[in-house]
Amino acid sequence: MSPKTTEKPYTILNSAMTLDGKIATKTGSSEISGQEDLVRVHELRMEVDAIMVGINTVLADDPRLTVHKIPSSKSDNPLRVVVDSRARTPLNFRVLNSDAKTLLVVTPAADPVKVDQLKQHVDVFVCGDKHVDLKKLMKHLYEMGIKTLMLEGGSTLNYSMLSGGLVDEVRVCIAPMVAGGKHAKTLADGDGFDEMKDSVKLEFKKVTTWEMTS
Question: What is residue 177's DSSP assignment?
Fold first, then answer.
């Protein structure tokens, strides 16, 4: 994992998905990773400078976004970056706690009263118009000293980052499970490409296998 010289963090999209590409069921259930993969994920969290998620992931999971599945200290936690165009993050959610630093990224379309409330808990960066300008955000993070970034979704943010050419590497745990459901979230949703020739092309690097544990 070595940062590129361009002015953006080296970005690793990390996710777990079922054999049919779902990262959650239609009800939001997302218990896919086994213990071995959880250890891998938290080891990766410890290695990077920041973790980034979208607001839908925050609202669905109320995640901590810290290193806690392996032996660690508070200083091992990377910066938490939340892409939240309209400042919808609830004030009592764990991503605003003092376990790690957090950068909340909003737009001018966000409620200024809510933004002021959020500023009492975390740093806030205004970027874009109605939607966060991800390229400007990546440049801002790089200028902050963030050289490596772990992207943990969700599916809409994943697609936006991939289609914008902002992802350098994809690491996916594929579980031997089939969730189905046309309304279930996939690894990358968003608008999608019209032509397969325009899709994001990847180069295969490595595979690791584990026994499935309950």
Answer: -
- Which domains are delineated in the chain? 10-23+30-179 (3.40.430.10)
The letter for the amino acid at 169 is E
Rounded Cα distance between 153 and 196, Å, is 22
Question: Measured between alpha carbons, how far is 19 from 129 in angstroms, rounded to an integer?
Answer: 37
Q: What is the CA radius of gyration of the chain?
A: 17
Strands (E), 109-147: 123-126
Q: Are strands 123-126 and 169-175 parallel, antiparallel or unpaired?
A: unpaired
pLDDT at 212: 60
CB atoms within 10 A of CB 1: 11
Mean pLDDT value across residues 204-211? 82
Angle at the Cα of 50 (from 44 to 54), degrees rounded to 5? 100
Q: 28: which 2 tokens?
A: 């939001």
pTM: 0.92
In this prediction, residues 17-46 reach a mean pLDDT of 93
